[in-house]
């Protein structure tokens, strides 16, 4: 007879910033670091330097 109304979505969950999860992406002979927040580092020929860029970004971001 009565229907339960659906729970409205939490507006705070929609506006939350994405987690800072950095990965490395290869493009041809170059490698670059990318983060879920939209940040990307410079293209590097060294995977190790791209990983260092990602670690530096994660350390620079508060929280």
From TrEMBL:
Q: Where is the composition biased (Low complexity)?
A: 12-22
Q: Where is this region: Disordered?
A: 1-22, 42-63
Skewed-composition ranges (Pro residues): 1-11
Q: Which domain of life is it from?
A: Bacteria
Identification of the protein by name: Uncharacterized protein
Organism, as annotated: Streptomyces halstedii
Which taxonomic lineage does the organism of this UniProt entry have? Bacteria, Bacillati, Actinomycetota, Actinomycetes, Kitasatosporales
């Amino acid at each position: 007879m009565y229907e339960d109304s659906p729970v409205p979505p939490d507006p705070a969950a929609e506006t939350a910033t994405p987690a800072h999860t950095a990965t490395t992406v290869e493009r041809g002979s170059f490698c670059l670091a990318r983060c879920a927040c939209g940040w990307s580092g410079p293209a590097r020929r060294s995977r190790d330097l791209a990983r260092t860029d990602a670690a530096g970004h994660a350390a620079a971001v508060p929280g």
